[in-house]
Amino acid sequence: MAKVYHDKDADLGVFKGKTLAVLGFGSQGHAHALNLKDSGCQVIIGLYEGSKSIKVARDKGFEVVSTADAVKRADVIFVGIPDTKQAKVYEKDIAPNLSEGKTLLFSHGFSIHFKTIVPPPEVDVVLVAPKGPGHIVRRQYTEGKGVPSLIAIFQNKSGKARKTALAWAKGIGGTRAGVLETTFKEETETDLFGEQAVLCGGACALVQTGFDVLVEAGYSPEMAYFECLHELKLIVDLMNESGISGMRFSISETAKWGDVTVGPKIIDASVKKRMQAALKDIQSGKFASDWVKEYETGYKRYNSLLRAGEEHPIERTGAKLRAMMPWMQKRSIKGAQAAY
């Protein structure tokens, strides 16, 4: 079993007299910055000229400077910028301003593992990855709790990289819940696989396909939505709280029988083979290369696929039915992007 670090294992005194820079003020960036500030750390925000986040960060009480100036001034630099944009920002603003003794910190290992960023040997390079979105990281902190997090060490020039990572994890609330140590390789490859094969790609495709099968068989889209999307949260919540066996304990005998006999016919050996192929594309760097190329060529296929998803009939049906659910928080996130 992996060692789990808690508050007693981390020392915020590591940051005494030091400046921490958060580059970007998006989902993770704003949460890390606010939590560290509330933990008593000296935090500045680095943003590009014209960023919409400048006013937001200043309104939260932060000093905002250019990305280059933030790197010059800081002892620890959190690169909270989207993966595809990190390499250009690194080349233009980060690399020229790095010096011995500084620490580069990431919340995802993509750029380091796939070498779109190659840091100089005289700096420490660490990862602190909360296992939850930024708004949850912030909310849990304000409630006196925390989100379980991962740390990893890529370069330890100073000999103090682990202490830095643990201090950062403590500052954002991670050690309240527990922190596990991994590697950049393991975090990156498992994270990408989970997103693609199960959490996002797998779940969305399964829901949309189930909806289509019912509608094409003559059932109403409303019934298809309830059975293939709406009730999915109820099942996932049970799994999240009690595991798969705990979920099965809470559902009917009929549902359990369908689960254990029909589920494996749908997600069968052929699906597992395609999952293994997707994992190989991640491990070989093919996915990363394709994704970087997609960004460099203007996101044409990416945007086309997103538009097709927005036009799927399940979206119109869902909007209508969610309007009938007053207990549900309604959020319009169309067009929203992580801020930098």
Protein described:
With 340 residues, this protein is an alpha/beta fold. The chain has 17 helices and 9 strands. It has helices at 27-38, 53-59, 67-73, 83-94, 110-113, 134-142, 161-171, 174-177, 184-199, 201-216, 221-230, 232-250, 253-266, 269-284, 286-296, 300-310, 313-322; strands at residues 4-5, 19-23, 42-47, 63-66, 76-79, 103-106, 124-130, 149-155, 179-181. Helix 3 (67-73) crosses helix 4 (83-94), helix 9 (184-199) runs parallel beside helix 10 (201-216) and helix 9 packs antiparallel against helix 14 (269-284). The radius of gyration is 22 Å and the shape is globular. The model has no long low-confidence stretch (mean pLDDT 95).
Q: In short, what is this structure?
A:
The protein has 340 residues and is of the alpha/beta class.
